[in-house]
Write a structure and sequence with these properties.
single chain; about 260 residues; alpha/beta; 4-stranded antiparallel sheet; binds adenosine-5'-triphosphate; binds magnesium ion
Length: about 260
């Protein structure tokens, strides 16, 4: 099978902080890759170095698009990059305010993505928006409300709806279920799991929550101080961690 994304020796520094140090991994179609590690280990920087326009110090990011073209992401023109982020890629930001347009309604936030991929029929757009609001458990009566009137958890769910509506091939998720009630989180995880399976989505999923990666991720990267200290199949890494840091991480989240 051909990989969708190839990251090779990616390094990103801030002054003398190595936020990402020599990161190499591959992502295959239909695969969910979890990234775990303590706060400040470089998870968000890695996501942004791959998917956003963050300048990197060195390394390569290769993406194979829908037309099977091999794109060198750090070298393509800005316009082509922007197009990818509006069509084939989706982002769920750690802070929902970065992933939403706060000055347009909830419905318009979803509609905007549909317009970006070329859907034009107004009735269909409204219907799709309502469908996805329901999927993320936001009352469709709130469709014409602005996101700043939503709670943090609702904003995060709206962000998910906005991303999922166009069924992107590759989704970057930074703590998608942070700040959600356990019951809502469980239902959203179920939804994500079935979407990944049915639509063959690929996901890079950053989270503090080992329960979330256990449920969703096929493979795991464990990061510490900007480096990958361990990687492998999720069950293997969590059930039989090899690196001392992973052992600590796993035992810290076990209920005594
Ligand atoms: N814009 C920035 N300017 C300077 N340093 C930064 C910047 N963004 C991140 N860093 C530093 O890079 C390192 C990695 O940060 P990053 O935000 O990627 O961590 P993280 O793993 O996402 O943490 P968290 O779990 O808290 O979100 C940290 O030392 C951080 O202080
Ligand atoms: Mg982060």
């Amino acid at each position: 099978m051909k990989s969708l994304l190839n990251v090779t020796k990616l390094t990103k520094t801030y002054g003398n902080i190595k936020a990402c140090n020599n990161i190499t991994f591959e992502l295959y179609p239909g695969q969910v890759l979890g990234i775990v590690g303590e706060s400040g280990s470089g998870k968000s920087t890695l996501l942004n170095s791959i998917g956003n326009n963050l300048l990197i110090d060195s390394g390569e990011v290769i993406y194979v698009n829908q037309k099977n073209q091999v794109l060198n992401i750090k070298q393509i023109p800005e316009s082509q990059h922007r197009k990818l982020t509006k069509t084939e890629w989706g982002f769920v930001r750690q802070n929902p305010r970065d992933g939403l347009r706060m000055n347009v309604t909830a419905g318009a936030n979803i509609a905007e993505r549909l317009l970006d991929v070329g859907v034009r029929h107004y009735g269909n757009i409204r219907q799709e928006a309502a469908y996805w609001l329901e999927q993320v458990e936001i009352d469709t009566n709130r469709m014409d409300d602005f996101p700043h009137t939503f709670s943090g958890g609702m904003q995060q769910r709206l962000q998910l709806a906005r991303v999922l509506v166009t069924k992107p091939r590759l989704i970057f998720m930074d703590e998608p279920t942070g700040g959600l009630d356990v019951s809502v989180q469980a239902r959203l995880l179920d939804l994500l799991r079935s979407l990944v399976r049915n639509l063959n989505l690929s996901v890079i999923l950053v989270t503090h929550d080992l329960g979330v990666v256990r449920l969703l991720a096929h493979r795991l990267l464990v990061m510490k101080n900007g480096s990958i200290v361990e990687s492998g199949l999720t069950d293997r890494v969590l059930d039989d961690p090899q690196h001392f840091y992973t052992q600590q991480l796993v035992s810290a989240t076990l209920v005594p």
